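input
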Amino acid sequence: MAGLLAGYSAFGANLVYTLVSVPLALHYLSKSEFGLWALVTQIGSYLVLLDLGMTGSVARFLADHKDTMEDGEYGSILRTGRLVFAVQSLTILLIALAGAWLLPFLLDLPSALIPAFKILLLGQGAIQSVSLFLRAESSPLWAHQRVDVTHWATSANLLTSLGAMAGGLGWGWGVYSFLFGAALGSLWSWFLPPIFCYHSHFIPTGTGRGDFRWNLFLRMLKFGRDILLMQLGGLLCSASPIILVTKILGLEAAAAYSIGTKALTMGQQVLGRIVESAAPGLTELYVRGERGRFATRFYQMTAISIALALTLGILLMGSNRIFVSVWTQGKVEWSSWGDLLIGAVLISTVASRCFQGAFGMTGELIKIRHLSMLEGILLVLCSLALKGWGGVLGILGVVLLVNIFISLIGGGVQVARAIPAGFGGPKIVVFVLAVYSSCAFASWWVGHVCASPAAPMITTIFLAMASGLFISRKLIPFFQDGV
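output
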């Protein structure tokens, strides 16, 4: 519970950062400059992949040995991770340096913005490098079910970044204010979790320190490879749309896509906290052989996540467009079709991430490791094949379709095989589709009958509340009956 509350605190800080930073940045910067930072942020997220999945691998291996820290195996995992992270952090710097010189030409960036792009990407690379170098010192938090510390550090990071960025914009630093804020805020994430780990004796001393072991590294790398494939696929799905929009439609369209889908990103984060916070405890149940309780808790968690995603998706369907217009003071336009798509994307991605999370907890990522990668590759290929047809909505439609047909259906089938519970998957699909499409039709009909632009939003809010009550009685029992 502490982890979940801290997770929502971090989400609240992220929400404050987003709500304040976007209109503030648009006040001081052009849409092209804002799009440039959005682009650099997404490219920077790819640099994280250079950890080769070792972050999740180290944390998962520590969970297997946290109850016997004195035998040296736990300490060996940490020492092996330290050396690997040090090498990887240096690699990130080198890749960022190469990208700063090559990417402007590959992405056809305006020549006036190329110097700023180089500095921003190098700065982002340096921040990512330091974060990865210190990763081993905070990795015990997940194994010891203290992810709340990580979330509190993230909250402080975001709020500090916001204050520093606002100061930089006010001082006339332009787009570099984002980099200044990111660097200053990262100090919390760099130092607070490691200090807590040492203070709580999560870092072994004496005979428990262990040593670097090549065979252990290979085992962690094998598990990390599966995590890497999933992370790369996930990043292709989350980060590549902005890069594709930049390449095909330009930086202003990238800014519009980034802002128009902020609510989607926020929704994914807030609902993702449920799985993230439950994962350490569920993993411990699985490691200790309590498979029945594991299955029950997993399906209950999935039920809550999907129910909330459906309710929030209905809310976004009729309100996001108006929110974007008010939020940006009319500088960015978004369509009702875009709202319909992001609501559906939210439901689909939340459900598919629950299914994928099950295999991270059981350590059997091999069963689904290729799904995210396949989804990401198809997203990129299909978006390029469109050649700009449909604009940002065309790309968003591709995001939805590939997620449904690859990760949602594929992940659901694998979960049903690995954790049988007889929860009636096809019935749930029909139920969710019926509720969402009915609310979409009602919102559309009200919008055409009533002259007031606020009518669809008011209708959707009412439908979301009514659906929330209906869902709690109809959807959750589908998951609970068979466990």
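quick obs: The chain has two domains: 1-212, 223-483.
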